[in-house]
Amino acid sequence: MAHKEMRKSRVLVVAAGLFLALLMLWSRTAWLQTARHSHYLARAQENQQVRKKVLPRRGELRDRNGRVLARDMRVSHVAVYRPQLRDAAEAARALAPLLGIDVRVLRKRLVQSRGYQWIRRDLAPEIGARVRALRIEGVAVEDETRRQYPLGEATLELLGRTNRDNVGVDGLEYQFDHELGGQTGWVTLVPTGRSSVQLLLPGAERRAARDGATLQLTIDAELQQIVEHHLARAVDSLDAVRGFATFIDPYTGEILASACYPHLPAGKSKNWNFTDQYEPGSTFKVVTAGAILEERLAKLSEYFTASKHGRVEIVPGCFIKDSHGRDGYTFFDAMVQSSNIVLGKLGVRLGADRLHRYATSLGFGSLTGLEYPGEASGRLRPVSAWQARSTPTIAIGHEMSVTPLQLALAYGAIANGGVLMEPQLMRELRAADGRVIRRWTPQPSHRVFQEQTTATLSTMLSAVVDSGTATATRVAGMHVAGKTGTAQKFDPRTRSYVQPLLAPLLFNAAARA
Known about the structure:
Elements: H1 2-34, H2 37-48, E1 50-54, E2 61-62, E3 68-81, H3 88-99, H4 103-112, E4 116-123, H5 125-133, E5 139-148, H6 156-159, E6 161-162, E7 168-170, H7 171-175, H8 177-181, E8 185-191, E9 198-199, E10 206-207, E11 214-217, H9 221-238, E12 243-248, E13 255-261, H10 272-275, H11 285-294, E14 303-305, E15 311-315, E16 318-321, E17 328-330, H12 331-336, H13 340-350, H14 352-361, H15 390-395, H16 404-415, E18 419-421, E19 426-430, E20 436-439, E21 444-447, H17 451-467, E22 479-481, E23 489-491, E24 496-498, E25 510-512
Parallel strand pairs: 2-11
Antiparallel strand pairs: 1-8, 2-3, 3-4, 3-5, 6-7, 8-9, 8-10, 11-19, 12-13, 14-17, 15-16, 18-21, 19-20, 22-25, 23-24
Helix pairs in contact: 3-4, 11-13, 11-17
């Protein structure tokens, strides 16, 4: 009897255990089907579907006249996956005419290939489509977008470049990458039993790609090419290390051309007109002369002693040299012949505070606000950091540094009657649908000189070209005003200035027919 009761108890325990296990299984199933339904439905859809990227078209860069400076170009690449290639000889016969490769050479490459290997890259999209239409097992066609620059190297330091993913890495391509790059889209595909086939079903989820915006610049493409060509010739003929040139409209501040030579490789390229700084030398003397005229501290006919031996102590411990060997000059002739001694004396007469005020008012020592990556601010120390020799030294363009763009804008202020303009490199940013996203317009910053002052300065600078140090820059039939500048170079090894073997020439001109 006791044995039967024990067996009955065991059966009940087993039955209860089985019932409890079934109850837990049912509960788990119910929980998965209700509370976790959305989660596992999404996972199932993810495993059953493939989301393919739809790449946008990168926006164009255009010049002021609408000429294309940068645009996207579609290319196709053909590859072979050897394990899936059934008949190499037959594939070679079909592909060779399309790829422009000899049949025997292509057959040998296909036979010897291992794994996944490129056959031909950077083909026209039409060729890629024809290869794809052959449906050769083991042959794949991949489409890609490449950036094309119709003007070649002439604009690379300005426009910048994109990487293999078509993302801007320097220049304006980098600065406006978000606007130019657009937004990547996607579409949902359903894979089939064959790994190379995916189906697009009706009503599939998708997000359309948004093409990038078009950016119109103030640059004149024709002028940019001309400047780059002549700059390259000048650098080569003079055996110079490098050269840069910038053209601006003095009345609007628009940058019409900005060229550099030699051209640097990707990753090291930059536009020296905006990013590099140097001592301006005598080209800075217009700041000193303009301040003297504005403050009425000297007349054009006032005579200043110089030195026939070419060396004068302007302030205790500060000796300034001239290379002209004359006893003296009038204020007017001192500018025409670029006398360091006289302009140094005029700097002392002007005083440190006023010299610093006019220099900063013309934009030296601070960023111009140009929307370009890596713009330099130049270097102009506060007056409190100046030494006794600083005033005459800075008055002739040493002990400070500027960018070519800053200097061009300063001369532009003289050409337009005394107003410093903000630099402008862009005109318009327009979306792919034609909608204007942003528009730039000329912006005057502030007035630096009165018109009477700039008129006198223009007369001085015209005389520099007609009979002074810049006669080599005269142009028949044109009225040209400019200033030469030769600066000594600072040698970091000796921590002193040395006379360069080849003096650089910087010429700033406002010319009109």
